[in-house]
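User: Sequence recovery, please. Input:
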């Protein structure tokens, strides 16, 4: 059920692409979504579901940004973000580049291209992973377009394909 919202509004976002197989049988990313369903159980509004790939997805229209899912997530990869900014980092891997590359084909490797591309200075690489400061971000999407690993995404699929 969609919730009537006044723009700009906030909603939850999961910082995981799903390419890391964190919940798989083989050792996966220690930072990714486990697919445990804790966030689904915590959400009283039915705004989160677990698709077949096992990575939690948020229905932005149903989410009221209460933060229950973020508090329930054992990996702490769900954040509440400003939906006026549709550019997000869909990775939470803090391993150095070579290790992150082995874990996931769409992991952030901390290359810094996004930092250099951002004219607003809204992106910093911290602990080998890009972080966007939403208060500064212009949502131009250049970081998402330039990201060689596709770890930075446009949630609406205008500048980058949705997966």
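Assistant: Recovered sequence (163 residues):
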């Amino acid at each position: 059920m969609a919730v009537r919202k006044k723009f700009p509004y906030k909603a939850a976002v999961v910082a995981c692409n799903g390419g890391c197989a964190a919940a798989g049988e083989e050792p996966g990313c220690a930072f990714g979504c486990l697919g445990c369903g804790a966030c689904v159980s915590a959400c009283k509004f039915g705004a989160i579901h677990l698709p077949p790939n096992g990575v939690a997805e948020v229905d932005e229209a149903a989410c009221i940004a209460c933060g229950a899912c973020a508090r329930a997530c054992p990996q702490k990869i769900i954040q509440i973000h400003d939906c006026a900014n549709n550019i997000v980092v869909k990775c939470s891997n803090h391993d150095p580049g070579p290790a992150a590359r082995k874990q996931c084909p769409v992991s952030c490797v901390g290359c810094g291209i996004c930092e250099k591309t951002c004219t607003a200075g809204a992106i910093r690489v911290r602990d080998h992973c890009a972080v966007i400061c939403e208060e500064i971000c212009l949502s131009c999407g250049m970081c998402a377009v330039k990201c060689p690993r596709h770890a930075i995404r446009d949630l609406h699929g205008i500048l980058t394909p949705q997966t």
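The domain at 10-154 is CATH 3.30.70.20 (Alpha-Beta Plaits).
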